[in-house]
Amino acid sequence: MNIVLAGATGFLGTPLIRWLKNDGHRLTVLTRTPRHPDEVRWDPYGSPASWVHVLKDADAVINLAGASISKRWTAAHKRDMLVSRIRSTRTLIEAMKSVPRMPATLLNASAVGIYGARGDELITEDSPPGSGFLASLAREWEEEALAARPRTRVVLLRSGIAFDTDGGALPPMAMPFRFFVGGRVGSGRQYLSWIHRDDWVAMVTWALTAHGIEGALNVTSPNPVTNAEFARTLGRVLRRPALLPVPAVALRVAVGEMAGELVTGQRVLPEKAKASGFVFRYPDLESALREIYGRA
């Protein structure tokens, strides 16, 4: 398969590229700073004239482009998070529509944040969007991606928090435990929708050829956990106590507005993947963490 990837050089994109290459796919990576023969320079805010040719024979496009959500949410960065996703997706789809044969499949990044804070409510792909900045951001992002229909099958990758040790959320979450000061955050009842990064890569590559999958796809483990369960399990795997709760207000002081949305959490289930036969290698948190830290 001939695949074009945008924004795919980070924590999630790098192992995805590795897997696709090992599986024999032909890849072209759109990036601002090309360093390898299979990378092409692109400006998601500019004209696609210099790179649109890579889409002429593409079978699929994977779009992961967008500014990080892990920085403090100043007004300027919130705008950057929104604009970077909307503009890059719009530019990419306009370029797709300009070639004689549109790619048959678009996998476009999104996030479980689209569901907003829902307590312990069980959430599937049929659940409606929620409220808050992340929900609004993801909703607008998905609307841009859906403009590729009907000539292209669009899959919206509503990802949970992907875990591994070389980036993402797990290292900073584990840091207090390494210093024997780990514990739940706030009440500990808020849910964490997570996924082992290997399962994230596996589900994304599965979605490339699972032609019956369209629209929203929850890319999460089938077993979301509460923050208290996460703390206990991580402490057990690292052989550290998980006794010192962190007040939610302390987190809000440390990271600002982001804490208010991330700490409340969502209890998201990957119903489409399960119903379609996708098999998780690490369906429960303890097996995932033991593999990650055992390998590390």
Structure, described:
There is one protein chain. With 296 residues, this protein is α/β, with parallel strands linked by helices. The protein has one domain: 3-Layer(aba) Sandwich (Rossmann fold). Helices cover 38% and strands 17% of the residues. It is built from 10 helices and 13 strands. The strands form 4 sheets. Strands 3-2-1-4-5-7-11 form a 7-stranded parallel beta sheet, with helices on both faces. Helix 2 links the parallel strand 4 and strand 5. Helix 1 crosses helix 5, helix 2 runs parallel beside helix 3 and helix 6 packs parallel to helix 10. About 2% of the residues have low confidence.
Helix content: 25-40%
Structural class comes to alpha/beta
What gross morphology would you assign? Answer: globular
Low-confidence stretches are 253-259
CATH architecture: 3-Layer(aba) Sandwich
Mean of the pLDDT scores?
Answer: 91
What is the rounded distance between the termini?
32 Å
> CATH superfamily, called what?
NAD(P)-binding Rossmann-like Domain
Report the β-strand fraction as a percent range.
15-25%
Largest sheet: 7 strands, parallel
Count helical runs: 10
Task: Please name the defining characteristics of this protein.
single chain; 296 residues; alpha/beta; Rossmann fold; seven-stranded parallel β-sheet; two-stranded parallel sheet; 10 helices; 13 strands
Write the layout of secondary structure elements.
Layout: E1 2-6, H1 13-22, E2 26-31, E3 39-41, E4 60-63, H2 75-98, E5 105-111, E6 122-123, H3 133-145, E7 153-159, E8 161-163, H4 170-178, E9 191-192, E10 194-196, H5 197-209, E11 215-219, E12 225-226, H6 227-238, H7 248-255, H8 257-262, E13 267-268, H9 271-275, H10 285-295
Parallel strand pairs: 1-2, 1-4, 2-3, 4-5, 5-7, 6-13, 7-11, 8-10
Antiparallel strand pairs: 9-12
Helix pairs in contact: 1-5, 2-3, 6-10
